[in-house]
Amino acid sequence: MAKYSYTARERTGELTEGVIEATDESAVAKLLLARNVVPIRIESAKEEANPGSAKSSEVHWYTPNVALEELVIFCRQMYSLTRAGIPILRAVSGLAESSSSVRMRVALLDVIAQLERGRTLSSALHLHSDIFNQLFVSIIHVGENTGQLDAAFLQLAEYLEREQETRKQIKAATRYPIFVIVAIVAAFIVLNVFVIPKFATMFAKFGAELPTMTRVLLSISDFMIHRSYILVAIVALIGFAIYRYINTQTGRYKWDRMKLRLPIVGEIIRRSLLARFSRSFSMMLHSGVPLTNALNLVADAVDNAYVGAAIIEMRQRIEKGENLTRVSRASGLFTPMIMQMINVGEETGRVDELLAEVAGFYEREVDYDLKSLTARIEPILIVFVAGMVLVLALGIFSPMWDMMSAIKGGR
User: Fold this and answer.
1) CA quadruple 60, 242, 164, 171: dihedral positive or negative?
2) ∠ CA(170), CA(175), CA(179), 5° rounding?
3) CB within 8 A of 21, min separation 6: which ones?
4) Edge to edge, what strands does the sheet with 15-22 contain?
5) DSSP state letter for 7
6) In a 3-state reduction of DSSP, which class is residue 18?
7) Strand pairing partners for 5?
8) 314: closest CA among 302, 334, 330?
9) CA–CA gap between residue 47 and residue 2 (Å, rounded)
10) pLDDT tens per residue across span 168-220
11) Nearest-angstrom CA–CA distance, 256 and 299
12) How many CA atoms lie within 13 A of 167 on its CB side?
């Protein structure tokens, strides 16, 4: 298709210009009239660089990714603009100019270029799947087809806000344990590099026979001082091997399954996944996405390979003619409460509403669990610190007491 530049007048009377790909000038006119824009001038356009790709030189490997907060702001602003009747092209142009994220600005500039060529908003967003995932694009596509684009952006904004709140809670809950673990590791390194060698020199002067625990501590200290590079290399190799394995399909599946069985946090992860499944599935069904397509999208949205594979299997069984209740029960993923809601929802045609209630329940449960996570982990950390102190006491102070007793006895 050829490119045509145009000048047209919007309903508000303002002039607008752009470029559209079409078969001929009459096709361009039809596209513009379909957008409620009256064409004034249409002529063949010269090949120009894509505005988005021209700006893509601003994006480098070290350019920060688009934050979830930026997506929330984008959805909220698009909801307000589309609800007010602002044309999509002008709305996206305004947000591209005001965006603080380089990646988001470049992506929106390319979206503008695609819209001017006659693409729909959903197909233009789909070209930037690293920012707008498949679930995001599908909701926008449904909103375009039903004439409820503003409602689609509102749904996405609320969904992403809940996701953002959950991430903040996880960070807040893990901040204290991480700080304590870092402090313990730092203390261990300082003791072995600076403190224990001083005692080793003193013990060597007395020439006394040292307890087993003391010899172990001295050996660890000597290893960390003179051969710590071996430890660093081993840790780096193990870390790299685990990273590579987790990034394989089999490794990711096993790792995601193991996360659900971890003590203390496994149940929290499971409830979080159930909440995400219920919320995203409810949103897709409410938007009018077909059941099998919705399950495909939800399998990606849960961000867990083990749960995602089970959801894909559910979709395959539904395609063979089984109902949602039966395949959900066979998957073994869901609690009795979710099964009851799915069963009642399928009978009454209100699966989306009942799953939204389930999502709210599990989101509150996860919120409570995350707030109490620190209280659950704290006793374990205290026991670990106490054990570390006990080992130091037995290994360092015990031989000192023995030597002091021997000195007093000699007198």
Assistant:
1) negative
2) 155
3) 1, 2, 3, 4, 117, 118
4) 15-22, 2-9, 38-44
5) E
6) strand
7) 19, 43
8) 330
9) 9
10) 888 888 888 888 889 888 888 888 888 888 878 877 777 667 778 888 888 88
11) 13
12) 9
Tokens at residue 381, please?
Answer: 């950390």
State how far the Cα of 96 lies from the Cα of 112, in Å rounded to an integer: 9
Q: 38-44 and 2-9: which strand pairing?
A: antiparallel
pLDDT for the residue numbered 404: 65
Q: Which two tokens stand for residue 269?
A: 């992860």
Nearest to 76 by CA among 164, 193, 12, 15: 164
* Cβ burial 161-170 (10 Å sphere, 16+ → b, else e): bbbeebeebb
The phi and psi torsions of 290 (rounded to 5 degrees) equal -55, 150
d(CA 314, CA 324): 8
Per the CB < 8 A criterion, the answer to whether 160 and 279 are in contact is no
Which regions of 35-174 does DSSP assign to beta strands (E)?
Answer: 38-44
Bridge partners (DSSP) of residue 122 are none
| Cross-strand pairs, 43 | 5
Distance CA 53, CA 56 (A): 5
Residue 75 · residue 157 · CB < 8 Å:
yes
Q: What is the per-residue DSSP string for 234-272?
A: HHHHHHHHHHHHHTSHHHHHHHHHHHTTSTTHHHHHHHH
Q: DSSP for 332-359, please give it.
A: T-S-HHHHHHHHHHHHHT-HHHHHHHHH
Single-letter amino acid, residue 67 = A
Burial of 345 by CB count in 10 Å (0-12 exposed, 13-18 middle, 19+ buried)? Answer: buried
Counting runs of H as helices and runs of E as strands, what totals does the chain give? 19, 3
Residue 40 phi/psi, 5-degree rounding, is -110, -45
**Helix, coil or strand: residue 3:** strand
Look up residue 60 and give its two tokens.
Answer: 């480098």
For tokens 């078969």, what's the residue?
Answer: 23
Token pair of 192, please?
A: 């072995």
And the tokens for 160? 């992403």
Provide the CA 188 distance to its chain's centre, in angstroms.
33
Q: Do the Cβ atoms of 362 and 337 come closer than 8 Å?
A: no
Q: Give the model confidence (pLDDT) of 76-135 as tens digits.
A: 999 999 999 888 988 998 898 888 888 999 999 999 988 888 888 988 998 898 899 888
